[in-house]
Amino acid sequence: MIDFAGITIGILLLVAGGAALVHGASQLASRMGVSPLVVGLTVVAFGTSMPELIVNVLSAFRGETGLAFGNIVGSNIANLALVLGITALVRPLTLHGDLVQREVPLLLLGTTVLVILALDGYFEGNLALISRADSIVLLLIFSIFIYLTALDVIRVRRKDVIVSEIESNPLVVTRPVTRYSAPYMLAGVGLLYGGGELTIVSSVSLAERFGIPASAVGLYIVAIGTSMPELISSVIAAARKESDLAVGNLVGSNIFNTLMVLPATGLVSAIEIPARGVRDLAFSWLLAAVLVPVFIFGKARLGRLIACLLLLTYVVWAVFRAV
């Protein structure tokens, strides 16, 4: 119970720290004259993935790469099955713009590259891992993604519906209230660090207590906990009928996890793929592949029936994975 309590408190601190950091950075960016659109595309998107980033980097420094791997892959699976399913149950999602629809194939491409890089050693009879060289390749792909996204926004301007949705995001500060921006950011960093340390220590202790791999704890408990910011943001966006923002938040978060958070961890320490990790990567790829026909060829709509199927798929995978 103590370990569960530690993980819960740690995740709550991570979420609070990410929110405080986003608020303070958003205020600072507004004071510097940065447009709400840019703030929404960068600061807010980055902030919702801060829990995963902090947990992973600290885990790598501690040599707990199994926990880091489980956190990212588990978070990606939770986002595309659990969180997306819950969000579509709140309100069916229909994409109206082009920007998010372009990101869905990019997510599939990024996931495919990750799987190939992870398995190249396995095919050669060596350990399956994400090396530092692999991490650099993924970061280079991420820089291309950022460039293409920025170029799309500059070209599209306000023609795409997600532009106005991002600017109306309640997490984006549009008034330059800067008096407390620095304290907010410092508090956010402190909460993120403290929450990350507590989450990692409690997760490792829990794994040792029950004799299970740390990657399993990261895959279920930590991954779901660190996906709470995405769940809250997407449900709020869906309730406000901002489907593009709800889906874009999840797709963007998975792209960020795959092409930035995981390789940032790999630069600190090579990430060995744990037992059954190959199956988890394959399942993550399959979920990304399913989104392509749903959002690109299926009139860009995800209704409650598909949402229920996604939730059922997540439950079945979780039970199958635990056996």
Question: What's this entry about, in short?
Answer:
The chain is 80% helix and 2% strand. The chain is built from 13 helices and 4 strands. It has a two-stranded antiparallel sheet.
- Based on CA atoms alone, the radius of gyration comes out at 19 Å
The oligomerization state is single chain
Q: How much beta, percentage-wise?
A: under 5%
Mean pLDDT: 79
Helix content: over 70%
Total helical elements: 13
Low-confidence stretches: none
Gross morphology:
globular
Q: Which strands sit side by side, in order, in the main sheet?
A: 1-4
Distance between the termini: 22 Å
**What CATH first level would be assigned?**
Mainly Alpha
How many strands appear in the DSSP assignment? 4
- The CATH topology comes to A middle domain of Talin 1
The largest sheet, given as strand count, sense and whether it forms a barrel, is: 2 strands, antiparallel
Helix vs. strand class: mainly alpha
CATH superfamily placement: NCX, central ion-binding region
Name given to the CATH architecture: Up-down Bundle
> How many structural domains are formed by the residues?
1
Helix-strand string: HHHHEHEHHHHHHEHEH
